[in-house]
Amino acid sequence: MSDLPKVRRLEAVGFRAWPAASVQYDGSWLCRLTAGHPSRRLNSVNPLDPSDYRDIDIRLQKAAKRFADYGRPLLVRQTPLTPPKLIAFMDEAGWVEDGHTVVMMADLATLPRDEGLDHLPSRDVGRFVDARIRVAGDDPALKPGLTEIINAIKPETGLFIFEDTAFGPTAGTIAVHDNDLVGILQLGVAEEWRGQGLGTAILHASLRWAKLKGARHAWVQVEADNAAAIALYRRAGFQDVYQYSYRGPAAV
């Protein structure tokens, strides 16, 4: 059984840490759409109250129209806050479930006390986006959309980049400090540099920065089938809080 107050708080800080371009509410269903980036987190319906299940069919039709206007497929992000009657509706209609993600948290008090701030975050969004695309092997066409997302993050943000003088960027991550919490996003290590401890190093660098800023706990969202990333976070003291997945109508 999930701790719903904790889930609600992590959902709220998650939305602030990775802001969508368009945000519309239908009751307590949050519709997030972003024309400039295909991320499902930025293009999904997010129900936030298990008791809000009125007019399910009509509301999904309205959401589908909004998504079609953005050229996006209709997706519902199913979390512990999703109304059971909406889940039953999707099950009966044969909606496909995909993309399981684990939300994890860690207590920053477990970080070594004698370690100082050995890496400072960058303030250059363009440089970070270029590094992120290189490290992840992403399509360079995503640069404008990713730049817009990062510039729209309102809580204090640290952009961490590790580089090699000959190779260029080797690892990167974003730390979003929001009151006593810090979210770790977009952590990646270049394929040629994996297995050398860079993921652990850049994670701890960002967590130390956030701890000095006053954060007490860290959270992360990681795909359930990414065994290497889950192992990295578990070694750093992260523990599972809840999971979510995406649901969409079956292709006709």
Write a short abstract of this structure.
This protein has 252 residues and is α+β, with helices and mostly antiparallel strands. It has helices at 4-17, 56-69, 84-92, 125-136, 143-152, 198-213, 227-235, and strands at residues 22-26, 29-33, 44-47, 76-78, 96-107, 156-164, 168-178, 181-189, 217-223, 239-248. The protein has 2 domains: 4-101, no CATH class; 106-243, Gcn5-related N-acetyltransferase (GNAT) (Aminopeptidase, 3-Layer(aba) Sandwich).
| Separation, N- and C-terminal Cα atoms | 35 Å
What fold name goes in the CATH topology slot of the largest domain?
Aminopeptidase
Under CATH at level 1, the class of the largest domain stands as: Alpha Beta
Strand order of the largest sheet: 4-10-5-9-8-7-6
Characterize the biggest β-sheet. Answer: 7 strands, mixed
**Silhouette:** globular
> Number of domains in the coordinates?
2
Secondary structure class reads alpha+beta
Determine the number of helices (DSSP H or I, runs of at least 4 residues): 7
Rounded to an integer in angstroms, the radius of gyration calculated over CA atoms is: 19 Å
The CATH H-level superfamily of the largest domain is: Gcn5-related N-acetyltransferase (GNAT)
Spans where pLDDT lies below 50 across 5 or more residues:
none
How many runs of DSSP E, i.e. beta strands?
10
Whole-number average pLDDT?
Answer: 95
Helical content, roughly?
Answer: 25-40%
Please tell me the CATH architecture of the largest domain by its name.
3-Layer(aba) Sandwich
Helix and strand pattern: HEEEHEHEHHEEEHEHE
